[in-house]
Here is the input.
Amino acid sequence: MTHLLHRSIHTPPRHAVSAQGLHFTDSEGRQYIDASGGAAVSCLGHAHPDVIAALHAQLDRLAYAHTGFFTTDVAEELADTLIADAPAGLSHVYLVSGGSEAVEAALKMARQYFTETGQPQRRHIIARRQSYHGNTLGALAAGGNEWRRAQFKPLLMEAHHIAPCFAYREQWEGETDADYAARAAGELEAKILELGVDTVAAFVAEPVVGATAGAVPAVGDYYKRIRAICDKYGVLLILDEVMCGMGRTGSLYACEQDGISPDLLTIAKGLGGGYQPIGATLLSEKIYQAFAQGSGFFQHGHTYMGHPMAAAAGLAVQKVIKQDNLLANVQAMGVELRQQLQAAFGQHAHVGDIRGRGLFQAIELVEDRQTKAPFDPARKLHARIKSEAMARGLMVYPMGGTIDGVRGDHVLLAPPFIVTPSDVAEITGRLSEAVNAAL
Ligand code: PLP
Here is the structure.
């Protein structure tokens, strides 16, 4: 009997008692390799001494200060650190407690930008069907995951959805990457024209789609086209890097690899590496100036925003990533992981696609490789893979079901940035056994 409401009431989770580096230990003494960083969170692995020391020092100094009264050195330093390496044009940071809060803040910033600049008719939010932006009502409304949205629809604000750029599922036979990128990005322009050119506030997308589709990067110059369309119609571009940001794909921000800068950028997960709950919304100088020269404040706020302990965790994690040159390891181990996945699943009868960037890789399971037909969702293949993996001491992040009729089950891997080639071999070996046992 538990008084804690778990995610799944009928299959309560195992009890974790400790974790060190890549490994969890449960209450029965079993060990698990954390090959998904939880949900792409634990980028440094567990119990990193530098982060623990920074948290102890911060706790001794100052655990909490409400931002209505004080700022703190640690929050200021984290903002400076993030902006120093941020995509061009981003100038300020709004610190919150997680990814959904960061997305909520970005949506509100977009709306307030237009009320401050005399365009109150701009209210529409456009997003993509294969997307997840969080579970709070605004973020859920923006997201395209029908399963998560269905029963809450009566509570959700209006949002509009276009197709994602998802080559495996939506690129036509014989279509070049350039043509597909143009066709997929063209959906945004068409939607803006349909809604009315001066009524759209923002377009929001994940540069590499995470939980809803499994490590799906865009092809060709898709994002350059998206940026150009947003500029053409004065629409703000929000990039949600809650899962794919902070080094996960091999560059600090995933959009660096797409060669663009957004107007608003959300991060969380790897920002604090799981050592504290933290998220952030980065905003451009243009938006900041609209607030500064307009009402003088952003009409939003949470009790725990800019929390000193969370900021200390974020700062310590970012210092370790730099000091240990971990982005280079993400790049090298990303190649290693892709090669090992290719070796293990490249010829597999039920693996249709292997994709991703850096240490953010996924395999997609299909009933039939030729037709790409997904497995019947009733089989709950993703859940079986998760439990077969756990039985083999492996934590991975499988998701499943069919959304929009175009997606099969996938397994997402997002191991900590400290993995070695032998860890990668252990992960792919155990995953291969788990997938075959689940099929
Ligand atoms: N945005 C993206 C892209 C995510 O992957 C997630 C979480 O998985 C969120 C937002 C929501 O973040 P959180 O669960 O921290 O609220």
User: Anything to note?
Assistant: The first helix runs from residue 37 to 40.
